[in-house]
Amino acid sequence: MLGLHNKSRRHASPLAACLMLVLFAVMPQSLTAQPSKVTKAERALANLQAQHREAHKLFADDLERVAQTCETHELKEIAARVRRLAAPVDPDVLRFEPLPRQMQPQIPAPAAGEFSWQVELRTFRKAYSIELDKLASQAVKAGLPSYAFQLIREVAFHDSDHVRARRLLGYERYKDEWVSPFEAKKLRNKEVWTAQWGWLPESHVARYENGERRNGVRWVTAERDTQLRSGFSNPWEIRTEHYLLKTNFSLEHGVALASSLEEFHRFFEQIFAGFFNDSKRLQLLFEKPATAARDLKPFHIHFFRSRDEYIAKLHKKYGQQITITNGLYDTDDLVVYSFHNPMEPAEPTLYHEATHQLLAAHLKPSPVIARDENFWLIEGIACYIESFRVADGEVSLGDPRSLRFEAARFRKLKDGYYLPLAEFTAMGKEAFQRHPQITNNYSQASGLVHFFMHYEGGRYRDDLIEHLRQIYKQAETGKRPMALEVLTSSNFAELDQQYGEYVLKLSQSLKEEFSIQDE
Ligand SMILES: [Zn+2]
């Protein structure tokens, strides 16, 4: 699959303009409209969500009492902090607070009759995390891996030393810290992670701080190093747990990008756990979480200093088409290519292409994914992932204010552009990529993925992820994926309608001009 990333987000792409042929031959398959019925998994989800809300309410009540006691002790700021910990979850975004690296220090026991907000807070948070952990186990048994991992993330947030949660999230204990097995190995080898230069042998750090750089077997000045790496033949190579990022732009910038990709990878594996594991394996994992160092080959990213260099590298293979992209995943060499653009952050493009790369990683080079139908989801999921953000350690995915989702609402509500799902899902790769309204369709695909991920607190999330898994599986087995109608037990017409209501409601809550309707 050529993971061409459609660059023109707001205006029609030249590619679409020159390929006006196509596609109305693809008509919706005849639909046996079945009445919507709630699936077993959906019932389980609704049930678990109700229990989750109830547990959260009791927890919030406990914390409110702690906050009030804080206030009577003149601890106003602490009271506010405690209340923030009890804030309800926003269903339209997946948002996770950072987990501390350090193990929690002991809290000294308060003297008899003394109030210790730390002790109270920790006790309530621990008790709540035990409840969440139980719900997570039930969720995985009910075939709701994405929700289960969401709960596990919440467990770790409230009790960051919860061993099972930490293991499930891919950490192991090293001295007084929680680190990944990869990091533990590095640390044992006397390497340290530096935010500026990545992993370095301990003995090199002082020299780096002094302005020296390692270039091959020699030590050179930072300026000389930059000169030597200006072509792409001798780039900086930044290795993190899952990535090998090569760049001739800047070492520091490359390290920052590789770190963001690493966060993206961790988050993606959790939220899309159902893509990578079948339900049996997930249950086993939940029963016996073990983190073992896996010697995986890293994903390769080539990040050029300029657009010109990027085009020069890829023009021969991809022709003019390359000039309308700002990144791509090459399914022959399995590399993600992108470049520094002073006008735009690089991360959304890298997340987009890294999603194509990650989802196809287990396949042999070059199978065509979604050749005959369902191609919208291949691009939709990658566009959805562009909304991934890391800020001060907090990660979030699906913020409805992100550009892609705003565009989707605009197209639907203002332009009135919408292809019904029966027609939209019927498009295979060619049809999708040559469609005269390709830009509109990218927007719609982004909006639809947001809908399937977040509608009614994630009612269809695991169905969508299962659908995605089956689409990629098809490239290996040839087995046709189950339609979303079947997986969600809602027919396309109903899903179309729910989508329309969903974007309108979101748009109104965001107070977007184009959603204000005449009464
Ligand atoms: Zn793409």
What is shown here, in short?
By secondary structure, the chain is an alpha+beta fold. The protein has 22 helices and 14 strands.
Give a verbal description of the structure.
The chain is an alpha+beta fold and 519 residues long. It has a domain at 41-105 and 116-179: Ferritin. The chain is 50% helix and 11% strand. The chain is built from 22 helices and 14 strands. The protein has helices spanning 14-17, 40-72, 76-85, 117-141, 145-158, 163-168, 181-188, 205-209, 222-228, 251-271, 273-276, 279-287, 307-318, 347-359, 375-385, 403-415, 421-424, 429-433, 438-454, 461-477, 484-488, 492-509, and strands at residues 94-96, 172-174, 177-179, 191-194, 198-201, 212-215, 218-221, 236-239, 243-247, 299-304, 327-330, 335-339, 389-391, 394-397. The strands form five sheets. It has a five-stranded mixed beta sheet with strand order 8-9-10-12-11. It has a three-stranded antiparallel beta sheet with strand order 1-14-13. A hairpin with a 2-residue loop joins β2 (172-174) and β3. α2 (40-72) packs antiparallel against α3, α10 (251-271) crosses α14 and α16 (403-415) packs across α19 (438-454). The longest helix has 33 residues, at 40-72. The protein is globular, with a radius of gyration of 25 Å. The protein starts with 13 loop residues before the first helix and ends in a 10-residue tail after the last helix. The model is unreliable at 6-35 (pLDDT under 50).
What CATH architecture of the domain at 41-105 and 116-179 would you give?
Up-down Bundle
- What would you report as the Rg, rounded to the nearest angstrom? 25 Å
The chain-level structural class is: alpha+beta
Shape: globular
CATH domain class of the domain at 41-105 and 116-179:
Mainly Alpha
